[in-house]
Amino acid sequence: MTPETACIHAVRDATHSTGAVGVPIYQSATFAHPGVGQSTGYDYSRAQNPTREHVEKLLAALEGGAEALAFSSGMAAIATLLELLSPGDELIATDDLYGGSVRLFNNVSAKNGVIVRYVDTSDPAAVSTAITDKTKAVFVESPTNPMMKVSDLAAIKKTIGNKQILLIADNTFLTPYFCNPLALGADIVVHSATKYLSGHNDTLAGFVVVRSPEIAEKLRLLQKTIGAVLSPFDAFLVTRGIKTLAIRMEKAQENALKVAHWLRKQAKVTAVHYVGLPDHPAYELSRRQARGFGSMISFSVDSVETASTILNNTELILFAESLGGVETLITYPMTQTHADVPEAERLARGIDEKLLRLSVGIEAAEDIINDLERAMR
Ligand SMILES: *Cc1c(COP(=O)(O)O)cnc(C)c1O
Prior knowledge:
By secondary structure, this protein is α/β, with parallel strands linked by helices. The longest helix has 20 residues, at 245-264. It is globular and about 75 Å long. Helix 6 (153-160) links the parallel strand 4 (135-141) and strand 5. The N and C termini lie far apart (48 Å). It has a seven-stranded mixed sheet with strand order 1-7-6-5-4-2-3, with helices on both faces. It has a five-stranded mixed sheet with strand order 8-9-12-11-10. The protein has helices spanning 3-9, 50-63, 74-82, 99-109, 124-130, 153-160, 175-178, 213-226, 232-243, 245-264, 283-289, 304-313, 343-348, 365-376, and strands at residues 67-71, 90-94, 115-119, 135-141, 166-170, 188-192, 206-210, 269-273, 296-301, 318-319, 329-331, 355-359. The structure holds pyridoxal-5'-phosphate. Pyridoxal-5'-phosphate (PLP) is lined by residues 73-75, 98, 100-101, 141, 145, 170, 172, 192, 194-195, 204, 206.
């Protein structure tokens, strides 16, 4: 099945025979047992719920994993996943990571005795150098947020070889519609489904998708024990969002390319970072490991004043955190998504007061461009 058809048809409501085309919302915390020692397959919704199970099967099918687990947010997914590690274990992570992941690793994982080393994973040799006999996982985000660096997952997998090190990929930006990290050698994929998967800026959700049934079993225990599960209604919303994933991803990408080309021509814009521009350093690599480039752009302007003029004056484009929805959003990484990244680290990564980030939506490209043009004046 092609990815676009799979988004709509990969999972049919398997639990009931009503013929419902939309997945039913099983708004029930608990399930009655037919008799002693008997179960309908559902006991208590923290353990499993039919609506959540539906969207988990859908993500597993789209990513080509053995199982997917749905959580109440992307951070809940990543935090639960990190419980696979023990005190003394080392984690190698991309240095240009989503700010919330940095906050989790530095404040929670560190307290739990996990040693995190940030490296430039776009250089597989840097990953190789950072690996020690205590390394248990490599956490890669690609393209990165907000600097759009791309990591070569197959090359990192090769570096790991047959050492017992889990390769984890945060695939939020590309989604399974454009990229399947498990097919490139990753063991685990994580998603903030708050973004493109649900796609309408109306729900928080997260997923962990795994290649191995043994790891899935460990994560099931952690999921039901920690309890940060996706609610039935939100599972429904994510399922519904995924039905239009293909056309949303295509349209947003088409718009992003137009916006990136336009930004490049503006006198006040000093740099444009978009993976889909043919002279982006990772353009060829992206074409090898993904079917698309996504629709996230970051760009630098000539002064702090220009940055704040744009943020204060866009009308169609909303000045709001998050990404991946039908609405075009603009953010100021320095004060929003990356506010908790230590200043020196942040500046070293190029996240300064002149950097802006756009999540390009599915409006008409000309309306997005007109809004930027007016706001920039
Ligand atoms: C938003 C985001 C997260 C966190 O997800 P939430 O749903 O906001 O908890 C993790 N990784 C990336 C790349 C993100 O963009």
